[in-house]
Design a protein that fits this description.
By secondary structure, this protein is an alpha/beta fold. 43% of the residues lie in helices and 11% in strands. The radius of gyration is 26 Å and the shape is globular.
């Protein structure tokens, strides 16, 4: 059957009878937080001593039970288990295989739960694990630390326990594990281990541990176990592919094991597909959406999966637009001929989307019908499975409603603004280039700003206190007026500016007290965006965000940050940075429209932000920071798509920032990503100063920038803000010394890793005072040596 042709199942009784019994809907995983973020509240309550460990475990068990029951009630035949986590599923895998860093072992042995959280967040005397982005998503995972001395030990308590819980509810359950190859490919050498150590060399040591976990799950009654191997959708070397083949040859040969379902998502399997298709496993779960749509042709090219189960991810698990049922049924109809059994699923775990669109009372119902969150996507998989099994007549009403909703969105005035489209069409290459070269700008900026050697600054946000959140809630509820609210914001800005002046910080920020989120704040002031009230998605640990929905053409009706930046500058003679979120991050941390090329959407956002940058400069702002933490995150997983992406992404940043005078200093910021992959693109941004996360990764990025010959000013972070630890003066100074080995002092800034929104005021004050003291100490040393 050709792709794009809906299978005629409605009146073909022979087809219906042959597939009805075998087509079932499922999902890879589910959001963890609960409808009211109950998990976040319980975990943070535990950290603060207000919630006992027993009560935390009870809350988690209730949430798991509710999730499974909801999935079963929606019509899923088989529910996933093991995907629930108190913090991160990669960290859970490290616990499962016994890969506990040496510095955390005593804490884990003393109290497993507290030790687990120490690995995630650190403690005053113990550094946490490094954190970085999960492939090309905004989810952060804890990076495993491994070395040649690592000894793996199986601990299947969590996996067996959660599977047993689901079975006790009378449900058919499929445990989900992170696969051994992906686990090792995500790992890094532990501190003190040679940086060229390859964790994948530990595969033969790790596989017996996975074999034991699989055996114990089988003994507990598991018929199927899902092993997630998303790393195999990336470009892989022959050695890595051979490792995958060996891993599944050995696991598939186990005598006492459940059936193995190897899952991939986010892109095409490519050269890994024939490896897995030939492996002695019982099924593959594959993504058939977005860049992974090519899996359809690839699967046909390798001869399909005869005798095996195929879980077909045709419902996009990463975005919130409704499924095109006719297109998905066409894909599924083609797949029927390529596997022994075809089941229907979302393309990946639903962890990446909000829970339920029906709770969004502020979104126009006409527009809401274009949207599908986790619960709606679950329903979509059930509808598609029923249509595939019983024929399209069995879902005639659903198909009609789906066609109408898709047509409504395509015809909506929200999606097309002629003025915006005319402006983007008129952009030229000169609009995205500053006319002065960086060396000339650097001289103008140093003269204008008069900053000391090793200038200190912060990344933008200061602690979002309970009082600030309460003020926003009171404003929304109408209990206070706009004037009273703005008075509270002004009071917070006065406190932030006064603290920074007293602490001795050189380039100040206003602290962003008026902002709920660095993307949502701007989205609410731009045309074409929709905001949610309950659309929470996990970013890391207990940090949840509400990605806005980029639904239509983008423009800026009026200034967005000018009022608060101007007020902050009026309180001090020191420069105050204007703070904006960059165009790529505005896309990456939103649910972006899928009806036009991303580059076109980025250009629209860039022009709206350009207007803001120019207004800030005209108001006297001499330092403007345009954050792009998602630049690396959004990099295509396969190298074939990267050049085109980086071309439009860097152009969008330059289009945002290139309208200013040479003396205006443009900063950007990035965090928690593998920057080594995009060093040339970072240079192409043509920013004057870049600040980057470096504390958890021990200044690795400074070395990478130096090796690449990066010529501009750099602020590698010396304060890890995702940990409650307060770094001492010596610790920050040691990191600065490492930075100076790579970056000359005249080009080195001193700053935290990231914004301080999630921290408390006491730790923030002490940490920043220590940071300034470290900068002054090292500045004196540099002045004394003339280095």
């Amino acid at each position: 059957m050709r792709p794009g042709v809906v299978p005629r199942l409605a009146k073909e009784s022979s087809v219906t009878s042959s597939v009805t019994s075998s087509v079932t809907p499922t999902v890879y995983g589910h959001p963890r937080q609960g409808p009211n973020r109950e998990l976040k509240k319980a975990v943070e309550g535990y950290w603060k001593g207000r919630v006992s460990a027993q009560d935390l475990h009870r809350t988690a068990a209730r949430l798991r039970s509710a999730n499974w029951q909801q999935l079963a009630d929606a019509g899923l035949h088989e529910v996933p288990t093991g995907d629930f986590s108190y913090y991160d599923h990669v960290l859970d895998t490290s616990v499962m295989v016994g890969a506990i860093p040496v510095r955390h072992r005593a804490a884990v042995q003393k109290d497993a739960l507290d030790g687990y959280f120490a690995m995630a967040r650190g403690a005053q005397d113990v550094l946490p694990l490094e954190m970085t982005k999960w492939f090309d998503t905004n989810y952060h995972y804890l990076v495993p630390e491994l070395g040649p001395y690592t000894v793996f030990r199986a601990d299947s308590g969590k996996q067996v326990g959660e599977f047993t819980e689901a079975r006790a509810l009378g449900l058919t359950a499929r445990p989900v594990l992170l696969g051994p190859v992906t686990y090792l490919l995500l790992a890094k050498p532990a501190p003190g281990v040679a940086p060229d150590f390859e964790p994948l060399t530990l595969l033969d040591r790790l596989l017996p541990v996975y074999a034991q976990v699989l055996s114990e799950l089988r003994a507990s009654g598991a018929e199927w176990v899902q092993l997630d191997e998303p790393a195999l959708v990336q470009d892989r070397t022959p050695a890595e592919l051979n490792a995958a083949a060996r891993a599944y040859r050995e696991l598939g040969a186990l005598m006492e094991r459940p059936k193995l379902l190897v899952a991939s998502y986010f892109d095409r399997l490519g050269e890994a597909l024939p490896v897995l298709a030939k492996a002695p496993v019982d099924g593959l779960a594959m993504d058939f959406t977005g860049p992974a749509a090519g899996n359809l042709d690839d699967l046909a090219a390798v001869g399909g999966l005869p005798g095996k189960r195929l879980v077909a991810g045709v419902v996009d698990g990463r975005n919130i637009w409704i499924n095109d049922f006719e297109k998905s049924l066409a894909t599924l109809g083609t797949l029927l001929a390529l596997a022994d059994r075809v089941d229907v699923s979302a393309s990946c775990s639903l962890l990446h989307v909000p829970l339920d669109v029906t709770t969004e009372r502020d979104i126009d119902p006409h527009i809401a019908r274009w949207l599908a969150f986790a619960r709606q996507k679950t329903t979509e998989t059930v509808i598609l499975a029923r249509g595939l099994a019983r024929g399209t007549d069995a879902i005639a009403a659903e198909l009609a409603a789906n066609r109408a909703a898709l047509a409504s969105r395509a015809a909506s005035a929200l999606t097309h603004d002629p003025a915006v489209r005319a402006r983007t069409a008129a952009v030229t290459g000169a609009d995205a280039r500053r006319p002065q070269p960086y060396p000339e700008r650097a001289v103008a900026q140093r003269t204008h700003l008069g900053l000391p050697l090793l200038p200190t600054t912060t990344i933008g946000s200061f602690p979002q206190t309970g009082e600030l959140r309460a003020a926003r809630a009171e404003l929304r509820a109408g209990r206070i007026g706009q004037d009273a609210y703005e008075g509270r914001i002004e009071a917070e800005i006065r406190e932030v500016i006064a603290f920074q002046e007293k602490a001795g910080i050189d380039v100040l920020v206003h602290g962003e007290p008026e902002r709920n989120d660095m993307v949502q704040y701007f989205a609410e002031q731009l045309t074409g965006y929709l905001a949610t009230r309950h659309g929470w998605v996990q970013s890391y640990g207990t940090r949840y965000v509400r990605p806005p929905i980029l639904a239509g053409d983008i423009s800026r009706p009026e200034p967005m940050t000018l009022r608060w930046t101007r007020y902050a500058q009026s309180l001090t003679d020191r420069p105050v940075k204007g703070m904006l979120t960059g165009p790529v991050t505005m896309l990456a941390w939103s649910f972006v429209r899928d009806d036009q090329p991303l580059g076109e959407t980025a250009r629209q956002v860039a022009l709206a932000l350009r207007d803001e940058v120019n207004d800030l400069e005209e108001a006297g702002t001499s330092v403007i920071q345009v954050d792009e933490p998602a630049l690396r995150e959004t990099l295509p997983l396969r190298s074939s798509g990267r050049a085109a992406y980086l071309a439009w992404a860097t152009e969008a940043f330059r289009l945002t920032t290139s309208g200013v005078r040479p003396g205006t200093q443009i900063h950007t910021h990035m965090c928690y990503a593998e920057f080594g992959d995009i060093l040339r693109a970072i240079d192409d941004l043509d920013a004057d100063v870049i600040s980057l996360e470096a504390a958890r990764s021990h200044m690795q990025v400074a070395d990478e920038l130096a090796t690449a010959g990066y010529p501009r000013e750099v602020g590698p972070g010396v304060y890890d803000i995702h940990s409650p630890r307060v770094p001492g003066v010596d610790e920050a100074a040691d990191l600065l010394h490492k930075g100076l080995l790579a970056i000359p002092a005249e080009r080195l800034w001193v700053n935290p890793d990231c914004g301080l929104k999630t921290r408390g005021w006491p730790e923030t004050r002490q940490s920043l005072e220590n940071l300034v003291a470290a900068a002054r100490r090292v500045r004196t040393e540099v002045d004394a040596t003339g280095a």
